[in-house]
Write a structure and sequence with these properties.
Distance between the termini: 45 Å
Structural class: alpha/beta
Number of domains: 1
Number of helices: 11
CATH topology: Rossmann fold
Mean pLDDT: 90
Number of strands: 8
Low-confidence stretches: 1-11, 13-31
Amino acid sequence: MSKIRVMTRNLIGVILLLFGLIGYGYADNPGDATNCDIATHEVALDGGVLYYNQAGQGPHALLLHGLFAQKEQWSAMLCLLSAAGYTAIAPDLPGYGKSADFPLADYQLENQTDRIRQLMEALGVHSFNLAGSSMGGAIAALYVERYPQQVRSLAFIGSPLGVADWSQPVKEAIYQGVNPFIPVNIGQFDLEMRLLFVNPPAIPDAVKEALVKDYVERNRHYQQVWDIVNLYDTLLDRRLRIRVPTLILWGDKDQIFAVDGADRLQFRIPRSKQVRLPNAGHLLLLENPVETAAIYVHFLKTGDNVR
């Protein structure tokens, strides 16, 4: 991955982070996140080097991003969890962000879980809370099933891949030959933002153009990754072998996966709690970080009571 592409991805992450931080508030603010030191580290694993951000001290919370995303999308949550007394870790998943050296096969979600296990072993962390956004939620659920002894709690921060069908707006775009997650022009990029956010952020045209240019130039790669990940579109649509306290946090205006999927997911996980965030879309970690962190921290402190 080129340095220009990494810088562009990080720039949009910062823009979205600022958008999320200035627009929202929550009564039970989990802490003051104005003084937050986020450190970036790297760990050499089989197949490549994995990069991760870390903040805070205390019990560990591992945060997994979604498809075509990166660790910087969790920056607001890292600071808020740090302020609440947790060590928050957000990796660039294998093949994403700066962790670009891994082979194509590692985009399989089973291989993603193995790499995450290797990361936590390298860090000497053997018990932690696990949360994921979108595709990251599916990976987190798969991880809990494969390595249940390591995970203290599970949280879906926004709707996960694998339990609900694509929303009608996403289907309509695909029927018209447009994949809104691999935009090849500015109009398609704006459509993606409208689907992901209730109130899309104002992104400079130069950033939009750079991102679209990358999608066009590396279109074959993005299509390959899309095809691999979408083999898991029914991963969670079954009785799940998850026995840890689980939070299902879903935006009630999610336009990627319809909100009624939250009921289906709760039915499949015995010790789960569902919260629907009002006037919220798909990327709660970016658009609603303060409310999301408050709900998540409350869950972490009381999750053992979930039945």
